[in-house]
């Protein structure tokens, strides 16, 4: 189950970013509102770095009204395509798994 969650997490982050740009802690908090997706900054920040290197997200710095500047993340066109492809495949696989679980 850990491997399954680890594989889905980047796509969940990309899906969050489809709704608008966010900074790291905001992403962690948003994931934490859904049972089973609670994760730490130590997991999310390295993943965001990988997504950036893969060209799926881009970043920029913005001054914060309370503290140091924040790095904001936004999804790229390649990131949108990746999450759309994942979503279609997820629906197909989830339907197949549901079929066998309901036997």
TrEMBL record:
Top-level taxon of origin: Bacteria
Sequence ranges assigned to domain Transcription regulator PadR N-terminal in this UniProt record: 13-83
Pfam family, one: PadR
Annotated InterPro entries: ArsR-like_HTH (IPR011991), Metal_resp_DNA-bind_regulator (IPR052509), Tscrpt_reg_PadR_N (IPR005149), WH-like_DNA-bd_sf (IPR036388), WH_DNA-bd_sf (IPR036390)
Name the record gives this protein: PadR family transcriptional regulator
Organism: Actinocatenispora rupis
